[in-house]
Amino acid sequence: MSELTVTGLTVRFAGLTALDDVAFTVAPGSVHAVIGPNGAGKSTCFNVLSGVYKATEGSVRFDGTELTALRPDKIAALGVARTFQNIALSRNLTVESNLMLGRHRLTKAGFVAAGLRLPHACREDARHRARVREIARFVGVEEYLAAPVAGLSYGVQKRLELARALALEPRLLLLDEPVAGMNGAERVRMAEVIRRARADLGVSILLVEHDMGMVMRLADQVTVLNFGKRIASGPPDEVQRDPAVIRAYLGG
Ligand code: ADP
Ligand code: MG
């Protein structure tokens, strides 16, 4: 089980401090939510954790390894997988191909050997396909495995993004607004998949979310950001009643 520890995290863009001395810990096997109004720095935080942005100052440690100097592919190889606020799938490929691409780093034989249909590569390929089917079933997209992504509903595509992250066999999942733009039924379904990812697969989850209901249902701990600063942290029911949090959301 893996712990993520963020300390003193500061990110400055020209003339703007997007994150200011932020600290939090994601305990092993837990769901930790990062919430806050628009522009609070939530996505910036994700982009630093996944290696897309560089931290100006501070430290991000995952299982004792410092992540701030590492490239995105190295961070993913350590078992940290992410989804994006806006869907980032290959739209012309099938669901299965998207999930196989998600397993790229796990493929020992490599795609060239697989393409040449060498026997060891074929066996490995078959194993990956079987696992991809299991993951597709887990998130409820198995029936679409042979379908191109472009024709699928928004809700299915969002679940597929989660499946693609799970295809990396991560120990920590970073989910950026997983239910944004979804209707009520799709939200309930996604919440259930996230709950099971933690319960059945044992992954730790860092969740950036706008939907307070989702946060209340899923999170063990919540960190609240406003204008790049941490203004509260604790269990969801406590944080929800915190006057500073209420003020931030009301824009006061
Ligand atoms: P949130 O996800 O909480 O809505 P963001 O992390 O996207 O907030 O943005 C925090 C602040 O940082 C915003 O003021 C945003 O405009 C700014 N910001 C984010 N990314 C960049 C960037 N690449 N360059 C300059 N400013 C950025
Ligand atoms: Mg955002």
TrEMBL record:
CDD domains: ABC_Mj1267_LivG_branched. Keywords: ATP-binding, Nucleotide-binding, Transport. The keyword ATP-binding applies. The keyword Transport applies. GO terms for molecular function: ATP binding. Pfam families: ABC_tran (PF00005), BCA_ABC_TP_C (PF12399). InterPro entries: AAA+_ATPase, ABC_AA/LPS_Transport, ABC_transporter-like_ATP-bd, BCA_ABC_TP_C, P-loop_NTPase. It comes from the Bacteria. Residues 4-252 form the ABC transporter domain. This is ABC transporter ATP-binding protein. It comes from Actinomadura sediminis.
